[in-house]
Amino acid sequence: MKNDVILPFYMAYPYPYAYDEQMKRMQDLEYLQQLYPKEAKNILKKVMLHLEPIDYSGSFLYDEYPDQLMMYRVVASIWEEMKKDAKNKGEQWSKEKEMWMQDMIKLVLYLEIFKRRCDKKYY
Q: What is the pTM (predicted TM-score) of this model?
């Protein structure tokens, strides 16, 4: 009985502190996203617009192993929209820049999906 320590009520349930840590990580990630270069910010805006309609409970985004074909289709639709926007602005991209843009779209898309999965407490 000498070793029994009475804890205050707020120390007996540590779960809110874990939630605070997750909130801090999400705020840190959002701050770092603000530091993205201009092209990456544009890609992030497009990615967020494309993910909004498919971000619902039961979406393939929240599958344990998301379908690669669906991911490819999202990347392709974002890529087509970015090409159309560049054509309207009169920009021409080299093959290297096109490959870089496609890779950048994939990276930003996967990071945004991970962020949304964490926000919905998927893990």
A: 0.79
